[in-house]
Amino acid sequence: MSFISFLPTYLKHKIGGLFPENNNENRKERANEVVNNHVLWSMGAGAIPFPIVDVGVLTLVQLAMMKQLCRTYDVDYSRRVSKSLITALVGNTLVRVGAIATKLVPGYGYVVGSISLAILSGASTYALGQVFVNHLEGGNDLLNFDVDKVKEMYEQEFEKGKEYVGTLKKKYDEQPDPKPIEIDPAPEEKDIFETLNRLHELTEKGILTEEEFLKKKAELLMKI
Question: What does 199-214 look like in DSSP terms, one character per residue?
Answer without folding.
Answer: HHHHHHTTSS-HHHHH
